[in-house]
Amino acid sequence: MILLALETSCDETSAAVVSDGRVLSNVVSSQIELHAEYGGVVPELAAREHLKNLLPVAHAALAEAGISPAQLDAVAATQGPGLGIALLIGFKAAQAVAFALNKPFIGINHHEAHLYSPWIRNAEHPLGANSSAAETGRTDTRHSGLFADFTRFQPNISLIVSGGHTLLVLVESELKHRVLGGTIDDAAGECFDKTGKLMGLPYPAGPIIDKLAEQGNPAAYDFPRPLLNDLNDDFSFSGLKTSVRYFIRDHAALLDDRQKVCDLCASVQAAIVEVLVKKTIRAARRAGVRCITASGGVTCNSGLRNELARACKNNGFTLRLAEKNLCTDNAAMIGILAERKLLAGAPLLPLDEEIKPGWQLV
Predict the structure, then answer these.
(1) What topology does CATH give the domain 151-324?
(2) What is the pTM assigned to this prediction?
C-alpha cells in the first residue's frame, strides 16, 4: 500500500507518503514566525498559510518519496481535533485528491495518531536546502523510519502532552485504547507558553523556558503541583499558571536578573514535569504494563525526556519517546495510523464527510 497523508490541524502544514509501514517522506511547513508577532496562533492566518503551502508541500512529499499521484492506493487526512478553519484546508484537499484518483479516503484522529508516533524509528535525515524549501519556509525531512516493535510492548501507557491537551491513555492492543484521564483546564503546553508570556518571553515560550531552565535551579522557587497526589489520571495546570502570575506580580524586579529568570524557568518546568512523570508512572503501575510511551509537542522538552527516562529506569519500565521531529504536528503519524486502520478493515469515509474540530479521544 502507498498512502498520501495530509495534516493541517493547527499551524503546521504537513504531507507524508507511507508505504508498508515505512515513512518514505515527511515534509512540514511551520508557521511559528508568522504567529510569534501575535503571541499565539491566529486561526485565519493559519488557514491562509495552509492554502499557500499545502500544494508545494504535497508535491515535495511525493517527489522525495519518488511516488507519482497515479501510484497512490489511498489518501488520508487529519479530521480532528484542531482549529476548524485549519483542519478544513487539509481535509477537503485530501478528499479532492481521493475523488480525482478514485482512491479510498480515511480521516484520522490527531491524538490517536500520536499514540503511534513513538514507534516510528530512525526517521530523521535532513535534506539540503532547495529553492522550494526557501519559498515555503518548510522543513524537508526524508524518512527511512519503520513502524516496528509495537506489538511486542502491548499493552502500554501513553502520555500525550501538547499545547492543547494532556492525556494518559491505556493502549491495550493495536487500534484498541482507552483514555484514563486528561486536561480539566490548562494543558501542560499551554501552561509553558502562558507562564512564559508572563515572564515576557516570546511565543512559543515552551522551548525558551526549556533552554533557560538548563542554567537554573529547579528548587529555587516552590510552585504547586496540581493534582499530583490525587489518585485519578487527570491533569490541571491553571493553578500553577495563576501561582506564577502572582509570584511575578510580587517579585517584578526578578525579571531584570537573568539568573533569577533561569531559576524561575527551572522551577516552573520542574513543577510541570514532576506532575507529568509521577502520574504517568502511577498509571503504569496500576495498569500492570511494562512499557510507557510519550508523544506530543511538549515531549520535545529535555527536562521531561530526561525525567521520564530516569523514572522508567528506576521503576523497570521500557520507555519509547517519539523522535523530536515527530513530536510536533506531522503527517507521518497520520499516514502510519491510516495505513494500519485500512489494513485492519476500518470503514472508509464518504467524500462528503465533514471535519470534527472537537473530536475527543476516548
Answers:
(1) Nucleotidyltransferase; domain 5 (3.30.420)
(2) 0.92
